[in-house]
């Protein structure tokens, strides 16, 4: 073992001995981040007068501030905190999160008594007192949402606008935007066509999907401007919001804008509609055919294409662009070899127009369809015709350079690669290598904050509150406070904050904050790529016969080394293992007494995660790319993507054409992390592109086990 590796490991043992203890605490606190087991909080909160409950009185006298905080948080979430006279009285005055309890109480009071002027005054005073703190931003946002309906009904919308103007982060919160639109539409006698189209484009955007307030906007808009209904219907169909789309369809039928029987059949049973009318498509109502074509994209793409072809000469430019763009997009993400032909039928403006639900994604996948078959000339053309901000994205900057090389213009490629070559990302590494430069993050002559600057971060109230939230397992709240605390910091201050986080075992914040600094200063490599739990990872990686650097690269992406991490889909622990997967792994390892909560134990989580990675390699041609994709999206999908390739594909092309955005970015980040961890251990990879390798569609992969 080389001297650098020995030294690195020696320093790591010292550096993370405290971190391990901190992570164990985080694990316990997040798993049990709920009111103490000594009380049945759900039962107590059902009482009309919980404050007089003997059991609760005893709990509030004996529990520490953290336990009481979690109880009142639950009371707030269940809209019961107003049943207490003054929750703040139960806490020590210097409790870091006491203002949250007061804010919850005031908000609850406002919800219960929207006309009460004293409560409104107290809220305003609270906001003035805490104007520089995140809690004021949070309270303003929640207050707007609690009071919006009341202010709208009682002609007090000036108050809404006044409060909204004071927001720094949340002015564009979908709920707030849609409340503003709803008020405007509801209170105008007439709505101009331009305003209607603008409102429609807003609520049709992906970030507004499924929002109940935006649904109110949709209903109000259709009522005032019926011509927007069909556009809304087409967008909802593409977004898979069938129940909401059916409501719009019924409005169109009621207003005699669509034939009832045929349109309902096309919408509810598109395959049956097609079987009924396939020999007389040209005689069917144009709008019914459009409904059928869009619905069939998720049932039978070839049938959808036949319906679309029957509309040749019947569609205006916008309708044609959107429909064939949709067919091309669906074909491309499903790796259909006809995708580019369908895109071509949409014309130069393909993927645009009011009927296009995902115009940006549609354009991206046209380029990916060309990349997948290595049609470099078309790829270069598609990227060159993208909107400027899209073409400058890292992936397209790299691929445009590659396309220019492949079509015989290598002298033009460097200008695209140079724009991203300083980044530590997946495409930054590929671009650096293409330019003949090192693709590793350089840690020579690193910059560190002074001890005084680091210690000063401990006096930042937002960072203090963030740490307290993390200590009791409330990571979302902690992240908000942290981001608020660093929002105005310059690069040197951010470095101090990152090192303060590292010092206090908050590796997730240390990494994320250091990333913001790394393009300004050369940082210590380990600040960006730490190696906690080294003994456990080395032990189980060796047992599973896999590269420990890969485990680190994956863990950094999965959990940022938070032992108690739990995703919104239920994945748990350092390696983010799903409960069903954990049971399957336990069965494979012949562990008969496995209990779900054990997955949070550091050794168990790493043992299970590395064992699963080994099984994925065994089933997926021993390819890191496929196994990494399988870890995120499931081995069956990874195998299908591999087997659908038109020819042997270089690894980077395979990754860029993974249909799931989350999985695509996940694989890129994990593999970029992995080479950095290897570099730290003196396992230098000479070519990132060659290391990624190739994916053979004919390679034997198996997914026999169902998880």
Beta strand count: 2
Uncertain runs are: 1-36
Tell me the Rg in angstroms.
28 Å
List the strand order in the largest sheet: 1-2
Overall average pLDDT:
92
> Which descriptor suits the 3D outline?
globular
Instruction: Give the termini separation.
Output: 39 Å
Helix fraction bin:
55-70%
Main β-sheet, in a few words? 2 strands, antiparallel
Strand content: under 5%
Structural class: mainly alpha
The number of helical segments is: 40
Write the topology of this structure.
Blueprint (H helix, E strand, L loop, with lengths): L2 H29 L9 H5 L8 H9 L2 H13 L20 H15 L4 H13 L4 H20 L3 H9 L8 H14 L5 H11 L8 H13 L4 H10 L3 H13 L5 H9 L1 H8 L8 H11 L4 H10 L6 H17 L5 H7 L13 H14 L3 H9 L3 H4 L2 H13 L7 H5 L7 H9 L16 H7 L3 H11 L3 H12 L4 H13 L3 H11 L7 H4 L5 H11 L3 H11 L20 H10 L13 H18 L4 H10 L1 H9 L5 E2 H6 L4 H20 L7 H5 L1 E2 L12
Antiparallel strand pairs: 1-2
Q: Brief description of this entry?
A:
This protein is an all-alpha fold and 707 residues long. A two-stranded antiparallel ribbon has the order 1-2.
């Amino acid at each position: 073992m080389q001297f650098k590796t020995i030294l690195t490991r020696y320093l790591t043992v010292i550096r993370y001995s405290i971190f391990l203890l901190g992570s164990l605490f985080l694990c316990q606190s997040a798993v049990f981040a709920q009111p103490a087991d000594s009380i049945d909080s759900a039962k107590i909160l059902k009482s009309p007068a919980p404050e007089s409950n003997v059991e609760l009185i005893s709990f509030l006298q004996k529990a520490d501030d953290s336990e009481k905080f979690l109880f009142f948080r639950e009371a707030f979430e269940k809209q019961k905190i107003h049943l207490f006279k003054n929750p703040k009285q139960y806490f020590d005055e210097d409790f870091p999160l006491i203002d949250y309890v007061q804010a919850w109480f005031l908000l609850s009071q406002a919800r219960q008594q929207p006309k009460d002027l004293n409560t409104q005054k107290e809220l305003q005073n609270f906001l003035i007192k805490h104007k520089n703190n995140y809690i004021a931003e949070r309270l303003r946002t929640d207050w707007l949402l609690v009071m919006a309906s009341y202010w709208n009904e009682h002609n007090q919308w000036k108050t809404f606008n006044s409060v909204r103007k004071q927001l720094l982060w949340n002015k564009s919160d979908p709920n707030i935007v849609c409340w503003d639109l709803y008020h405007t539409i509801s209170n105008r006698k007439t709505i101009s066509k331009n305003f209607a189209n603008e409102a429609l484009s807003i609520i049709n955007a992906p970030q507004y999907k499924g929002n109940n307030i935006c649904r109110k906007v949709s209903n109000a808009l259709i009522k005032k401007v019926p011509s927007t209904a069909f556009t809304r219907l087409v967008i909802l169909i593409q977004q898979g919001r069938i129940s909401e789309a059916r409501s719009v369809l019924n409005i169109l039928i009621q207003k005699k804008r669509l034939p009832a029987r045929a349109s309902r059949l096309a919408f509810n049973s598109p395959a049956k509609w097609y079987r009924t009318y396939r020999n007389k498509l040209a005689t069917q109502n144009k709008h019914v055919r459009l409904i059928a074509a869009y619905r069939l994209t998720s049932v039978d793409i070839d049938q959808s294409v036949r319906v679309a072809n029957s509309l040749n000469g019947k569609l205006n430019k916008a309708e044609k662009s959107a429909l064939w763009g949709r067919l091309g997009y669906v074909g491309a993400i499903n790796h259909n070899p006809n995708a580019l032909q369908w895109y071509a039928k949409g014309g130069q403006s393909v993927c645009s127009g009011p009927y296009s639900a995902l115009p940006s994604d549609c354009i991206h996948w046209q380029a990916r369809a060309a990349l997948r078959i290595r049609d470099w000339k078309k790829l270069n053309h598609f990227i060159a015709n993208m909107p400027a901000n899209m073409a400058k994205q890292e992936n397209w900057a790299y691929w445009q350079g590659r396309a220019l090389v492949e079509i015989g213009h290598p002298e033009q490629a460097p200008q695209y690669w140079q724009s991203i070559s300083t980044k530590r990302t997946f495409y930054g590494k590929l671009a650096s290598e293409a330019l003949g430069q090192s693709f590793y993050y350089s840690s020579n002559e690193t910059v560190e904050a002074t001890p005084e600057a680091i210690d000063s971060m401990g006096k930042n109230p937002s960072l203090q509150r963030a740490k307290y939230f993390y200590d009791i397992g409330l990571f979302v709240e902690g992240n908000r406070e942290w981001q608020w605390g660093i929002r105005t910091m310059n690069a040197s201050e951010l470095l101090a904050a990152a090192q303060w986080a590292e010092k206090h075992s908050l590796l997730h914040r240390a990494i994320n904050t250091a990333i913001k600094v790394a393009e300004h200063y050369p940082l210590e490599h380990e600040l960006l790529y730490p190696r906690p739990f080294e003994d456990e990872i080395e032990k189980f990686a060796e047992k599973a016969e896999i590269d420990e650097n890969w485990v680190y690269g994956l863990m950094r992406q999965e959990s940022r080394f938070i032992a108690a991490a739990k995703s919104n889909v239920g994945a748990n622990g350092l390696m983010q293992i799903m409960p069903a997967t954990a049971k399957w792994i336990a069965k494979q390892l012949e562990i008969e007494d496995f209990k779900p909560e054990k997955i949070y134990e550091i050794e168990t989580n790493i043992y299970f995660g590395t064992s699963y990675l080994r099984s994925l390699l065994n089933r997926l041609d021993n390819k890191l790319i496929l196994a990494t994709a399988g870890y995120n999206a499931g081995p069956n999908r990874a195998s299908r993507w591999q087997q659908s390739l038109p020819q042997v594909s270089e690894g980077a092309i395979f990754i860029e054409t993974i249909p799931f955005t989350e999985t695509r970015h996940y694989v890129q980040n994990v593999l970029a992390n992995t080479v950095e961890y290897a570099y730290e251990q003196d396992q230098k990879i000479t070519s990132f592109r060659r290391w990624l390798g190739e994916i053979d569609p004919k390679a034997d992969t198996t997914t026999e086990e169902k998880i």
